[in-house]
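Q: My labmate handed me this sequence with no annotations at all. I'd like to see what the chain might look like in three dimensions before we decide whether it's worth expressing. Could you predict it?
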Amino acid sequence: MSAEVVTRFAPSPTGYLHIGGARTALFNWLYARGRGGKFLLRIEDTDRARSTPAATEAILKGLDWLGLDHDGEVVSQFDRADRHAEVAQALLAKGAAYKCFATPEDIEAFRDAARAAGKSTLFQSPWRDADPATHPDAPYVIRLKTPTEGARVIRDQVQGDVTIRNDQLDDMVLLRSDGTPVYMLAVVVDDHDMGVTHVIRGDDHLNNAARQMGIYTAMGWDIPVWAHIPLIHGPDGKKLSKRHGALGVEEYQAMGYPAAGMRNYLARLGWSHGDDEFFTDTQAQEWFDLDGIGKSPARFDFKKLENLCGQHIAVGDDAALLHEIEAYLTASSQSPLTEAQRDGLLRGMYCLKERAKTFPELLEKAYFILADTPIQPDEKAARNLDSVSRGILAALTPRLQNASWSREQLEEATARFAEENGTKFGKLAGPLRAALAGRAVTPSVFDMMLVLGREESLSRLAQAAASDED
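A: Here is what I predict for the chain of 470 residues:
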């Protein structure tokens, strides 16, 4: 086996990138990246009736948003059908497979008879050991000759050793009567040809591993390291489904979750490194190992997701956050930012990203930057702009005008004004918030003044103070 670790993600393009598929991709990506290996992408598009270019595009976009870059070109399984058929013919030539002429009616009759006799309904083909001279000129499938005795052991890095008796396995069809390869053959041939060393996938594929091992063994190929990970359940312990909320990765982008928080959360969904909850991509790649994956299904928890996303927003690079916010606005079909809004967000990011769990929350805090002027206060803020408050703003504005525009000077000028007027800063904060943002809940008034700048801040205060003249 190659010393280089090679993993793969192999989705079927029949819909969006499911959250479970995204986690499988992430585990494969982390395992390869943490070991200087390769992470490959294969689209299993052999089901032509259900595979669509739009679904392939959705999967690629989902992986791109999550930041899971792959090595080399995307492999199409359908394009490799000739190679899959070639392996089936090679197995036939070496006696590890055989031509089976049994019709669907023959198979059904066999099963009916087995059921009536109380025997196993696992189909036993009468053509398994037939003399080729007796073969009719009729359509046939190619079946793998499964040993009838003994057992095979799946040495699984998550589930432990799983033993399956050979007499519980049928002679699997490799090539259909129309010459097309079946999925089970295609997967093995592709994994072998792509040099895949570690197959990390959902535990719903565990039984497939036993059948696929038969092809590896018959071809004399190295069997990869298996790691079958438990599925994701909803908070109620049932298999994750639409009733639990969003399933497609693109829905999470459109809801405004940052990709770094999503990666962190998905990594913790069924895998752990001690008690660590929050970690960076670099740490995840260093720490991720198969023995940290649990055997029980993980439960999806929106509160934990939001908590981690908030932590990632708080430590995020300002320019990178702005870039991701713009992608979020596109994904959620909202208007793009103007140049002035972009500049304002960048200037204000330091006071916006604290305690925002999602981009919508961050943008709500940024309303004072994004709102059109003159500012129209909402109902709650308007209550802080009665005639007394407007009088206070009118008297305070000249004091601020004369302050050098630094936080220290602004705080000092406001505190002195409050003291001289026998009031507390808290009494000034409401009218200031209403004037600067038109909202009752905002970042610090001093942060807003610094982000807006002297001219815009004073203009808004003057407009609010004069608003009773309407």
